[in-house]
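Folds abound. Consider this:
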Amino acid sequence: MPNQPNTPIDEARFEAEWEQDQELLAQLAANGDVATIARTVDVSFIGREQALEVLAEAAEDLGFEFGQFVPDEDAEEEGQWRLDLDIVQTIEPEAVKALTRKCLEIEATYSGVEYDGWGCMATTGAND
């Protein structure tokens, strides 16, 4: 059984992910997003089916809800799958930083699993 997250991560990778996160946050804000509104955030992991199955089984214990588990049609390598997990939270910068760190800890903990980013719909508070 893999250890729970809090596994050391590659800080350079974290900084690179954070740069991408900031770009996404800016795009969402440009579309009228209100970062303080909680919403479903989708995080994706890619890898071989067996490796992702182990993570899917642990998702709830890690604070996520199962989203979907499908073959990764965009994969560079044949046989890759994508696991999408959902979490309800805000997308304030510190919350996104914590989520990205948690996902990279999951990647470091679960062999054969690669974090592939997060996404969500812009939430304006008007009929969302």
About this structure: The CA atoms of residues 33 and 124 lie 5 Å apart. The chain is about 35% helix and 25% strand.
